[in-house]
Amino acid sequence: MIKVLVIVPYEGLLEMMKEVSQEVEDIELQVELGNLSEGVAIAKNAENEGYHVIVSRGGTASMIQEAVSIPVIDIQVSGYDVLRILTLVKGFSGKAAIVGFSNITQGAATISELLDLDIKTLTITRDSEVKEKLLELSKDGYEVVIGDVVTVQTAKQLGMTGVLITSGKEAVIDALEETRRSYRLFSRLQQNIAFMETILDSEEQAIGVFNQDNEVIYGNEQFYHEFHWLKLDNTDVKKLIQETTLANEKQVKTLSINNKLWEITTCPIQDATILFFKNAHSPQTITKSEHIDSNVIELHTFVARTPILGKSDVIHHVMDQIEHFGELDGPVWVSGEQGNGKELVVHSIYLKRQTADKPLITLHCDVITAEQWKDLMKESFFQKYANSIFFLKNIDKLKPYMQKELLQFLQNENNRNPQWLISSGDNMEKIIKNGTFHRELFQLLAQSHIHIPPLRERREDIEYLVHVFISDLHPKYGNEVVGIRNDALEQLIDYDWPGNVGQLKYVIEQLFLESQSYYIEKTEVDTVFKRVEQQAKQNDVLSYVDMSGTLEEIEKQVIIKVLEEEGMNQSRAAKRLGINRSTLWRKLK
Ligand SMILES: Nc1ncnc2c1ncn2[C@@H]1O[C@H](COP(=O)(O)OP(=O)(O)OP(=O)(O)O)[C@@H](O)[C@H]1O
């Protein structure tokens, strides 16, 4: 039995509905009187009380449609209804007009033309236009106005004769037929949704969908159990959603949320992003210490398989070494300048070595604080995760006493040791000599050593990398750029690339965005190089700055650095910083 509430805007329809309700058996029909906002309030109540469908008419039906999420059927004004009224007003004396929405006026205009009636038709798009139209008509000597409830009420207020277009039985029967159709469709859809929801709720992963305003538009049971977000306030997750939208492709990242590590897979869909949250390995133990956060430790059970590209002999040698060391389980030390593919090499070795459930735990040695290190050691973190592969990233930045403690751990034969993969800069000899790095630690971990020479020493790789990066960018930005002019390529080959392949990749992406045609031009390379060097200069300023001080101290350091770069010329420094000279002087005091 379909439970239907009919909200009628005028008394006459109430009676007719009551009559019709006696004749239908498959519909439990309730009828109530209510016009516009009054009708909306009744409809909202009805939805809560479990009615399946609402039937109403004209403006009231449109307003209800906005307010409820069950189907709303509009009793249409039929040709018969208009005909009936027009025949009726034929007997009236005085000028007559029909005022209403297009569903009424369109049919009426045709019918009055057919019947050769002198009746004006005026179409409105909003109820609020009625009064203005009627005032105009009144001025022009019209006395009779035909229309919907609002039109008739307004006409009466203005002292005109208002004639209501009532709905005949045919329109009501049509509406009930439409009710049956919508109900069938709606309940089938609801069943499908309920079925899908059961499947999603039985999933172990938490699944959440966020719209562009970071609001949760869907969450499965597990999601609401773990997170209490209605609107997202976690900046790391927000950033991840942003990255997904920008790249328009799946991303995988491990993040620490509410003291647990989650491997999050994101998937962009139209106007929203789906997030799958998987509990990362043994979260309780990893997050026991509240100082261990996601910037210092990253845990991956999934690493993207990115091929290492290059035509040079040295890159082929690196590939051979990966093959070889990938077969063993001892430590491998990868050295090279920034952006030169060390992480890529480490990931390739991991993928080669990976047994089903060994996670890769990356420790960012450059950002670990004394407190965090103490926690790792106290909990003998490395031993607890001896079953994993550890990646000590930028080990050359590890503080000397931490190096010493790591060495002691490695030398203690009672310790169960995990596998180690290490990356460092190019200057190990120098820092060992000047005492910043522990020689023994290097000797112990670098027995298998892969060195990646800087890109400027293997320029023959550049052309190939450029072409692959261009083709990789196609799916992201569309198919405009298909190649690069020879003189532009020469310029890229001649450049020294202090940031190596990572910088080349970035520059190609910038060229992609800059380029106006199918081929990247030399002038575009000039523009992008200029921009990149400007950015490097700014970053350079920041890299000299110790961010641990107060805001004032940091600001002072930035000013001094810029002053130095500008040969202590205060005017130029002030201009670059966007402040005037006296402010600069005041800030330095
Ligand atoms: N030979 C290569 N083939 C393809 N892509 C490369 C190659 N070398 C580096 N890349 C890409 O360049 C970027 C930087 O590489 P990666 O992060 O591995 O460098 P890194 O040496 O670990 O840098 P850093 O020390 O600055 O963290 C990455 O996007 C990586 O995929």
Automatic annotation (TrEMBL):
Gene Ontology biological process terms, A to Z: regulation of DNA-templated transcription
Superkingdom of source: Bacteria
Residue ranges occupied by any Sigma-54 factor interaction domain in the UniProt entry: 308-513
PROSITE patterns: SIGMA54_INTERACT_4 (PS50045)
Pfam families: AAA_lid_14, HTH_8, PrpR_N, Sigma54_activ_2
KW Transcription (keyword) present: yes
Keyword Iron-sulfur in annotation: no
InterPro entries given in the database record: AAA_lid_NorR, Homeodomain-like_sf, HTH_Fis, P-loop_NTPase, Sig_transdc_resp-reg_PrpR_N, Sigma_54_int
Keywords associated with the record: ATP-binding, Nucleotide-binding, Transcription, Transcription regulation
One GO MF term attached to the UniProt entry: phosphorelay response regulator activity
Protein name as it appears in the record: Transcriptional regulatory protein ZraR
Organism: Oceanobacillus oncorhynchi
Taxonomic lineage: Bacteria, Bacillati, Bacillota, Bacilli, Bacillales
Gene from which the chain derives: zraR_2
